[in-house]
Amino acid sequence: MRPGASFGTADLLHGLRTSPGIRCSLQFEVFLVKESKMALMLLSRQLTCSLQQNSRLFACGHRLISQTAAKIDVDFDYDGPLMKTEVPGPRSRELMKQLNGIQNAEAVHFFCNYQESRGNYLVDVDGNRMLDLYSQISSIPIGYSHPSLMKLLQQPQNLSTFVNRPALGILPPENFAEKLKESLLSVAPKGLQQVMTMSCGSCSNENAFKAIFMWYRNKERGNNNVTKEELETCMINQYPGCPDYSILSFMGGFHGRTMGCLATTHSKAIHKLDIPSFDWPIAPFPRLKYPLEEFVKENQQEEARCLEEVEDLIVKYRKKKRIVAGIIIEPIQSEGGDNHASDKFFRKLRDITRKHGCAFLVDEVQTGGGCTGKFWAHEHWGLDDPADVVTFSKKMMTGGFFHKEEFRPNGPYRIFNTWLGDPSKNLMLAEVINVIKREDLLNNATHAGKALLAGLLDLQARYPHLISRVRGRGTFCSFDTPDDTTRNKLIAIARNKGVVLGGCGDRSIRFRPTLIFKDHHAHLFLNIFSDILADFK
Amino acid sequence: MRPGASFGTADLLHGLRTSPGIRCSLQFEVFLVKESKMALMLLSRQLTCSLQQNSRLFACGHRLISQTAAKIDVDFDYDGPLMKTEVPGPRSRELMKQLNGIQNAEAVHFFCNYQESRGNYLVDVDGNRMLDLYSQISSIPIGYSHPSLMKLLQQPQNLSTFVNRPALGILPPENFAEKLKESLLSVAPKGLQQVMTMSCGSCSNENAFKAIFMWYRNKERGNNNVTKEELETCMINQYPGCPDYSILSFMGGFHGRTMGCLATTHSKAIHKLDIPSFDWPIAPFPRLKYPLEEFVKENQQEEARCLEEVEDLIVKYRKKKRIVAGIIIEPIQSEGGDNHASDKFFRKLRDITRKHGCAFLVDEVQTGGGCTGKFWAHEHWGLDDPADVVTFSKKMMTGGFFHKEEFRPNGPYRIFNTWLGDPSKNLMLAEVINVIKREDLLNNATHAGKALLAGLLDLQARYPHLISRVRGRGTFCSFDTPDDTTRNKLIAIARNKGVVLGGCGDRSIRFRPTLIFKDHHAHLFLNIFSDILADFK
User: Fold this and answer.
1) Where does this protein chiefly localize (chains A, B) (predicted)?
2) CA atoms of B23 and B116, how far apart (whole Å)
3) Using only C-alpha atoms, what is the Rg of chain A?
């Protein structure tokens, strides 16, 4: 059922009854039968709210029209937002106070009812149902409570995978390689057939750095064996056992918050303040002017300037004995404000790494998993020579990194930790990738992304004082607002209208919907946001 | 049923039928009914092997006698090891080759059948069943396929927790604080009522370091606000935004493998070689002589020497502007060789940290969770003033750290990442802690540990050329062998006799059984190991 269509209690009950694998719905139905009068009264109130909400959305004049849904649809999804209180509501506020007694809870937006959350909709503890365009900081691949994943959990033969977490590096389960092939290797970037799993994005980048340092040192060593001096000095953190290598990163980049990664993260001061760091080189990331077609020459110059600086830094740091062993970059700088560069920029950067013998590490923690319309955002670049290392996490459910054969550690226990990821995440990822392939979700991301981007450009044309620099690839879209106060206000209003948005950089709003975000969700959002902009003071 | 008791097919079938929550057994039973002849033939062969194994164990003269089992027993446990092939067997070797095509698989011991693994027994893909005294590098709290955890997974209301992984720092589930209270806070070290969850041990230590650096900087700052210069310089990894603070660690310590942790890890060269590091102070850890009662004075002097060195390093590093903000230590250095120090040593170290204004960070990643007979190993010390920060992971199923109120970050997003742990792990931990309390597993660890230690001391008396420095607390026991070749050979032989052991340091064997390891498991192991030592050439 699409937003704006008429519907009644019978439809709703039918919808609940036919939702596959959702126990909570069935429980709700039983509850309805048992306590029918009270429940129907409550239900009717909800429906009224929802209809009011929807009718208000579709009432005013100049607006985008919701299109017909695609054939392949998300039958476990809700029909639209349903708001009962402001957000955070009273129950969320109560829980925040409780949690704040245990840990700093100032970052909490609201508390969620994940059992009731489905598809593109996040339900909070006050019963508000919101279209979620942020999807847990871009980490939910195929929506909440996807029936395929719910089924996976219900299969008795899978229980053991969740209960018995192994030390994967020494005692892997029988199907470990098979699951890696079914999941990660089936979507591996071209040329990268080696893969390690890790527990999170930071660990993925940290271990990718380590693989790069080992690779570089082996190159330097030639065929010589490790010296006694190296073995002894590494134990006390000193040269030559611990060489003074560095990783070159870009201003505005975000690569994680553990101390190695953090030395390459430069998006916000709050991430870095008070934490000791390494003297590693930091290059400028291009600051493109929009619309791109109007600033072709300026943007080319800007990219050339940044690339030149990269080469200068490599030379400068080699001179001061802090050799650049690798360069890390995001295909789109996400936390730093959704900063894009041209495909050509990245191809040239790849050339520079080859020229200077540095590894090229592409951080796809946020961009990977299909949201740009390709499984990996860097596949848009058309590289001749693949990246050396590609890290992932978030929507991939497990962290880890792909790498070329030559980056394989030359002995056991060099890239190692107790868990090395979690087979239960590999199991779920294999199913997620099945769903992505079966439902053609990469093409969906391209298609829905076009609808979203076109709508944003339209809004930008109508509200240029509020929206600028509209940009995106697939559903990985964003725009700038005049300042962070306006940005935060827009996010707060949208939330109270039933849309969860995320900010990034100092004034941007980023879109990070799940892969089952469809055209009609884009239109639903655009209609709501159009009203917000029209009323904005 | 105890090892050595007589038993038949009917008993085994009954045992399988009554195992609660183990689907694989039921499947096996169906298989038996369907293919009864073939199955009974196979079964009978297995039983014969098992009986041979057991009768051999209990045949020879001078040996420890298996005791009667305690009342509280592990009814889902197997009766003893059952070996069919050498380990790794043919199927494991085939899978190793397969995995080695994807990643360096040289560290793999063998491949496991986790569905068939239960209690203290790990079953491999060749059908070998081994008593597991290593428990996935000390990370399985209450044995394999524990019925309580299997049930938890089968409850429909829990499915969502496994399928919908939230960004805990911004959108926690309704029961987040409640689960933390039920689990982690119900066993919090005295005086530490604040807790953060993380995904693994390394992330726990990394974030504990960060909390310590922030705390120290705030102390230095007094009531002054953060300066513009700090905000700007931290973005480019420079002072004063990134101060030159350090964490003092001990030679032989292991605190993880990401770059911050790795700067405090000094157990083996292979962990550190080729990775850039920080110039942070490293103090000697006491090298105690055994038996302790014979070397009281020498050991006191050794501990005094180490403590003196700690103070000297604090002063020296302050002078060279690398202020020691905190000291990290394991209650028992695990990876480094199971090195113990006296409770008094740790109390004095705590005094030193207070005197010099450094934070005292106790790394309980391997020692925590009950195996020493107290929930946290440092609770044995009898500290007047609690530790400032205590990190955990492994048997706690989630990583994280407890800390005093004053180490709470003074703003949102300072200690933060996308996942901040995983509520599905908190859910399982809450159940694990229920089981620990219900089944009095801390007392069990003390009791079973005594049986194990007494047996090891007996073996040391009989085989002093093979076993020395027997030591332990609870089941967290270990001994030294003459050299790493002997150690590795003993581990390999034990494995082929049905016992999984782990090494640590350069020549030690460590015991890391689960918390449901009972006296009779200790005796079973001691019997097998006694034979191995008698035959050892």
Assistant:
1) mitochondrion
2) 9
3) 25
Structure ipTM: 0.88
**Residue range A155-439, CATH number:** 3.40.640.10
Q: Find, among A258, A503, A162, the residue nearest to B204 by Cα.
A: A258
Kindly report the average pLDDT of chain A as a whole number.
89
Strands B476-480 and B508-510, how do they pair?
A: antiparallel
Q: Are strands B499-500 and B468-473 parallel, antiparallel or unpaired?
A: unpaired
Q: What percent of chain A has pLDDT over 70?
A: 86
Residue B263: its chain A contacts at CB < 8 A? Answer: 237, 259
Contacts of A379 (CB under 8 A, 6+ apart): A189, A190
The active-site residue out of A110, A209, A250, A254 is A254
Residue A298: pLDDT above 50? yes
Residue in A179, A394, A395, A404 annotated catalytic: A394
Beta bridge partners of A479: A509
Whether residues B139 and A412 touch (CB distance < 8 A) is answered with: no
Active site residue A258: no
On whether the CB atoms of residues B16 and B28 are closer than 8 A, the answer is: yes
Nearest CB partner across the interface for B114, out of A136, A160, A195: A160
SS3 B79: coil
B37 is catalytic: no
Q: How far apart are CA A197 and CA B399, in angstroms?
A: 17
Distance CA B425, CA A437 (A): 29
Q: Which residues of A touch B171 (CB under 8 A)?
A: 108-112, 122, 136
| Strand-pair category, A359-363 with A389-392 | parallel
8 A C-beta contact, residue B248 and residue B324: yes
Note whether B115 contacts A200, CB cutoff 8 Å: no
Residues 6+ apart with CB under 8 A from A268: A335, B413
Q: Which amino acid does the sequence have at B105? A: A
Decide if A77 is catalytic. Answer: no
3-state secondary structure string, B444-487? HHHHHHHHHHHHHHHHHHHCCCCCEEEEEECCEEEEECCCHHHH
User: Residues B9, B48, B227, B418: which is the catalytic one?
Assistant: B418
Q: How many CB pairs under 8 A join A and B?
A: 389
Could you read off the pLDDT of B227-262 as tens digits, one per residue?
999 999 999 999 999 999 999 999 999 999 999 999
Chain A residues with CB-CB distance to B111 below 8 A = 171-174, 176
Residues of A whose CB is below 8 A from B254: none
Distance from CA of A284 to the nearest CA of B (A): 11
Nearest residue of chain A to residue B92 (CA atoms): A174
Q: Which residues in B lie closer than 8 A to residue A428 (C-beta atoms)? A: 163
Active site residue B254: yes
Which residues are paired to A468 by β-bridges? A480
Q: Which of B338, B345, B360, B394 is catalytic?
A: B394
At A353, list the tokens.
């790494």
Element (DSSP H or E) covering residue A39: helix A36-57
CB-closest option in A260, A268, A277 to B242? A277
> In chain B, where are the structural domains located?
75-82+112-126+441-536, 155-439
Under DSSP, is residue B392 helix (H, G, I), strand (E, B) or coil? strand
Shortest Cα–Cα distance, B253 to chain A (Å): 11
Q: Could you tell me which chain A residue has the CA closest to the CA of B255?
A: A417
Closest by CA position to A194, among listed A185, A203, A204? A185
Single pTM value for the model: 0.88
d(CA B65, CA B3): 11
CATH number for the B75-82+112-126+441-536 domain, one of 3.30.450.370, 1.20.1250.20, 3.90.1150.10, 3.40.47.10? 3.90.1150.10
**B37 pLDDT exceeds 50?**
no
What are A208-254's pLDDT values in tens digits?
Answer: 999 999 999 999 998 778 999 999 999 999 999 999 999 999 999 99
